[in-house]
Amino acid sequence: MVKGVTHPDDARRAVDVGATAISVSNHGGNNLDSTPATIRLLPGIVDAVGGQIEVLLDGGVRRGSDVVKALALGARAVMIGRAYLWGMAAGGEKGVANVLSILRSGVEETLYGLGRASVHELTPDDLVIPADFTRGTKK
Questions:
Q1: DSSP characters for 10-74?
Q2: How far from 31 is each of 2, 36, 56, CA to CA, in Å?
Q3: Spacing of C-alpha 119 from chain mean position
Q4: Using CA atoms, how far apart are residues 71 and 120, in angstroms rounded to an integer?
């Protein structure tokens, strides 16, 4: 997997070199303060690879509804870093289990609100996406 893909051209290059997956990641915004949110970059990258490789989203996932949004926009999965670290800092293993339980419940509640039985039923049509959401990153 190639991590740190934020542009459709780089996603296509990853396909060309034989990567089997990419992670749409801005490394938590730690490298550049003005990096666009990964959720805004996701649709253009998903379009660029056209299902040739797996696309994961990394960054900005704070609640179950964020997971649902990423999956609806074409991510195969999300990667979560800080949330479980906060759980670990607050309560060790039980804290991590609690964070994962909260995220799982949030996914289930969001699916229920959308009238979906599974994340596999999600499509971009389940979301209200402003016209300028991707900030011109679809190329």
A1: HHHHHHHTT-SEEEEE-GGGTS-TTPPPHHHHHHHHHHHHTTSSEEEEES---SHHHHHHHHHTT
A2: 17, 12, 19
A3: 13
A4: 8
CA 6 to CA 103: how far, in whole Å? 25
Of 13, 27, 63, 116, the catalytic one is: 27
Under a CB-based contact definition with an 8 Å cutoff, are residues 22 and 49 in contact?
yes
CA distances from residue 17 to 10, 14, 21, 126 in whole angstroms, order as listed: 11, 5, 11, 33
pLDDT tens track for 97-115: 999 999 999 999 999 999 9
Closest listed residue to residue 55, CA positions, set 111, 47, 118, 63: 47
Kindly report, residue by residue over 111-138, the tens digit of the pLDDT: 999 999 999 999 999 999 888 887 645 4
27 is catalytic: yes
Per residue in 38-89, pLDDT (tens digit) is: 999 999 999 999 999 999 999 889 999 999 999 999 999 999 988 889 999 9
